[in-house]
Structures are given as structure tokens and as C-alpha cells.
Amino acid sequence: MQWYFVAALLTILTSSQGILTTLSQSNGGYKYDYATVPFLAEVFKLLVSSFLLWREFRAPTPPRMTTEWKSVRLYPIPSIIYLIHNNVQFATLTYVDTSTYQIMGNLKIVTTGILFRLFLRRKLSNLQWMAIVLLAVGTTTSQVKGCGEASCDSLFSAPLQGYMLGILSACLSALAGVYTEYLMKKNNDSLYWQNVQLYTFGAIFNMARLLLDDFRSGFENGPWWQRLLHGYGLTTWMVVLNLGSTGLLVSWLMKYADNIVKVYSTSMAMLLTMVLSIYLFNFRPTLQLFLGIVICMMSLHMYFAPPSVLVDFPETVKALPESLHEVSIDRSMEASNQRNEASQYMIILCIANIPNSEKLNRATEKAARVDCPYWLHGVNPRIARLLDCDLVRLVLATSTGL
Fold it and tell me: Which residue from 181, 204, 227, 231 lies 20 to 30 Å from 256 (Cα-Cα)?
């Protein structure tokens, strides 16, 4: 399954969440306890993951599973972060209006990129950083109302505490996503085994939240398990299935893609929801919405398109293999009849994947025996052909023969 197919499916499901939730309302309210929806979604994800893990056990090669406590104890942490995030979210909304909160929520796009770099050590190019900032600008632009709107006066007029809590909320959301990606990629365990651990703790924490709500209300409506399915209809079950399926797709992206792909999927889903609302709920489109969509499309193209599509590189640069992280070449020739003399070339190649010291020493000795003024190691044959340099090909032969 290709990541872009999963990302597109995630965009569609995420965009339909708000629509299905709105359709599940009755007379502007909910007949069911909406706090039970996340719990049932966690149970759904747990059941699906358990079934898929059972199928893996029936395969000739059993799945890899790490059962040591030092590994299992890491899986409640995302649930704890999300629990703190939800409380900070409610606290933020006591200070700022909904429009301001939605706009500030776009900070998680940039904070995800920062944490992605700091904690996962994933390097982003300058072009990708520009694309991430553009995505935040585009989503913010689409949410800004015109200054003729009545709500425009209240935009960004909240006290300082509200903005600080909003920034904290964005950071917590990004931290939970980045940490989950770290968990999914820290070993080669089965995706479904990792999901079982995540969703088990997720169900436990959601159950604890329902119990806490009961204690706060003094069990006015009875214990949560008695009203678990009260008021549920077809659209409510569709919300549960949608939320659960979205979580499964996100875990797949965390395992086989990364957080940035998820951020783009959810951002595009927000724009798609706005467009669909025009036809479903008589939502009035604004110039800012269309401008935001254009900016986000530019950002999407900048981040995922190959550099050769964005910049007119020479053909020699386009041919560089992806395994080389950085290549710098400076050659000089005094005359064309001296082309085969290696001493006339100043060649520098910086590569990331350096062989171990033993192979490096043996390559050095062989290069010294043939009296090479400049020697290289680990060079890809395509680079050797690109440089048209006998010296590179000679050292390549000595290195690859180790």
C-alpha cells in the first residue's frame, strides 16, 4: 500500500468527520453522550488490530513482538500527552473565541516540523521548511474572516494567558504526534502489535475519563456503562467507525511515512471540509478560503515534488543517486589533452554513508599503492561515469572489492 493512497484516504475520512458529527446532531444538540465516542473508537481500533495481529500469527513467519516492560511502558505516554492536551484545549477556549483558537491551532504545523527535526533527527531542506510555513499561512488565511464580519472585532483580543495556552496546546499536539512516530519506528515490531499496545492504553484512559465525569456529576445520569449506547443512531455509529478508521490510517502513516505527511493530510482535510460545507450546509465561501487553498496547494507541491521539477538543474545533477546526501565537485583542466591525468582534477566528494574503519584503511592502502594524488571511497558507479575520471573508477574498484 503506497503512502500517498493512505494519505488521500486519511484526508477524505478526516474531512468527513466534522460533517458526520454535524449530521449526528438533533435540534442543535446530541442525544448521545459524545464522550463515549472516543472510547468506542479506541475499542474498535483495538479489536481490528487484535484481529490483524492474530492473522499475522497464522502466517508461516510469526510477527516480531517486543514484550519487555521497558518497551511496553512507553506506550501510555501518547495517551497521557493527549489527555493533557484536551484539558489545555478546554482551558484555552475559556480565554479565546473559536476563530482565534482555530487560527492558533495552525501553529502545530510549524511546531511539528521543529520537533520532527529536534527529536527524530530528520533533516528538512530549506525548500521543505518554506513549504511547511506556507502550509501554516495557507490554513490560517482560509480561516480568517473578512473585517466586515461582526466577529472580526473579537479576533486576537483575548488576554495573554489565552495565547500562551494556545501555543502550549499546539506544542502538545505536535509532541504527541512526533512521540508516536518515534514509538512506531524505534524497532521492527509488528504494526498491529504496536497498535494493540497503543489502543489498550487509549481505551483505559478514555474509560478513566468517563468515570471522572461520573464522579464530577455525582452519577446524576447513572454510570457511564449504562448510557454507553443511549441515543446512538446510524450517523453516530458512522462517526465512531470514521474516528476509528482514521486512527488506524494515522498509525500506518507513522510507521511507514512520517508526521509531515499526516499534517498535510489533516490540513487538506480541513480545506476539503470547508468546500463540502458550501454544498451541504450553505456555507458562504470567502476570498480568503480560495486564497488559502491556492497557498496550500503550492506548499504541497513544494514539499513533495522532486527538486528537479522545481528547479531546472543540469542533467548531471539530476542523475545523482538518492543515497548521497551531499556532493560537491570542483574540477579544473589545463588542457583537453591532459584529461586522463588525475593530478589535473581537484575532486571532493562528501558522502554520508562512510564504510567502517577496516574497509577504509584497506582502501587507503590500495589507493596509496597506485600512487593516487586524490582518492575516494564508497563512490557509486553512476558518479564515476558522471565524472568521467579514471581515478574515481580505479579507487571504486578497490573499494567495492573489499
Answer: 204
Could you give the maximum distance between any two Cα atoms of the chain, in Å?
Answer: 95
Sequential DSSP letters for 216-244: HHTTTT--TTTSTTTT--HHHHHHHHHHH
pLDDT of residue 358: 54
pLDDT in tens, 164-223: 998 899 999 999 999 999 999 998 999 999 999 999 999 999 999 899 989 988 888 888
**Among 276, 231, 245, 250, CA closest to 19:** 276
Q: What is the DSSP letter of 29?
A: B
Give me the pLDDT at residue 338, please.
37
Tell me if 195 sits within 8 A of 248, measured CB to CB: yes
For 49, 110, 182, the CA distances from 45, given in Å and listed in that order, are 6, 29, 20
Enter the DSSP assignment of 59: S
Q: Measuring CA to CA, which residue among 45, 15, 19 is closest to residue 265?
A: 15
pLDDT of 278 over the 80 cut? yes
Q: Do the beta carbons of residue 31 and residue 281 sit within 8 Å? A: no
For residue 401 the three cell numbers come to 572489492
pTM score of the predicted model: 0.72
| Helices and strands, number each (H, E), in the chain | 17, 0
Q: Which residues of 47-71 are buried (b: 16+ CB within 10 A; e: fewer)?
A: ebbbebbeebeeeeeebebeeeeeb
Q: Which three cell numbers stand for residue 48?
A: 481490528
d(CA 138, CA 294): 8
Phi then psi dihedrals of residue 186, to 5 deg: -75, -20
343 DSSP assignment = G
**210 touches 224 (CB < 8 A):** yes
Q: Nine-digit cell at 217?
A: 456529576
CA angle, residues 292, 298, 304, in degrees to nearest 5: 130
Euclidean distance between CA atoms 279 and 69, whole angstroms = 51
Q: What is the pLDDT of residues 144-159, one digit of tens each?
A: 765 455 555 555 567 8
Contact between residue 152 and residue 210 where contact means Cβ atoms under 8 Å apart: no
Q: Which residue has the cell 465525569?
A: 213
Could you tell me the residue ranges of all domains in the chain? 3-310, 317-400
To the nearest 5 percent, what fractions of the chain are helix, strand and coil?
A: 65, 0, 30
- The cell numbers describing 85, all together, are 492536551
Distance of alpha carbon 68 from alpha carbon 218, whole angstroms? 40
